[in-house]
Amino acid sequence: MLSIIVAVSFLIAVGVTVITNRSPIWILEFYLVASLVTFIVYAIDKSAARNGRWRTSERTLHAMSLFGGWPGAIFAQQKLRHKSKKRSFRILFWITAILNCGLFIWLLTPDGLKVLRALHI
């Protein structure tokens, strides 16, 4: 349950940065879409695991988390009970989530804001 609170709190914090004009709305949209896609990939992988089909690699799941889908991964891990027990996976998952949060925080710094402005998005 704590992990769900962390994910929801992060998304709320991103929303607050948008409302207060500290970040553009597309960042919130990006996190929401990345989370939805990651949740769907976890669901497909869970189904594949149950039915003996081709599986999504853990590397792909971690990459999706690193690039913003970690809140969706948390929801999938909790709701689907998928990839929630394997300790080595969970440790690396949290490293990707922390790195992504660090990148988001950096984007709020003067140097990060310069990068956002340079993107013109």
Detailed description of the structure:
- This protein is mainly alpha-helical.
- The chain has one domain (2-119).
- The protein is 81% helix and 0% strand.
- The chain contains five helices and no strands.
- Helix 1 (2-19) crosses helix 3, helix 2 packs across helix 3 (58-79) and helix 3 crosses helix 4 (87-107).
- The longest helix is centred in the N-terminal third of the chain and has 27 residues, at 25-51.
- The model has no long low-confidence stretch (mean pLDDT 92).
Topology:
Elements: H1 2-19, H2 25-51, H3 58-79, H4 87-107, H5 110-119
Brief synopsis:
Helices cover 81% and strands 0% of the residues. The chain has five helices and no strands.
Give the low-confidence spans.
none
Q: How many strands, which pairing sense, and closed or not: the largest β-sheet?
A: none
Count of discrete alpha- or pi-helical segments spanning 4 or more residues? 5
The overall pLDDT average reads 92
Strand content: under 5%
How many domains make up the coordinates? 1
Written as H for each helix and E for each strand, in order along the chain, the element string is HHHHH
CA-CA gap between termini? 35 Å
Q: Helicity level, as a percent range?
A: over 70%
Give the helix/strand class. Answer: mainly alpha
Strand runs, count: 0
Query: Which descriptor suits the 3D outline?
Result: elongated
* Computed Rg: 15 Å
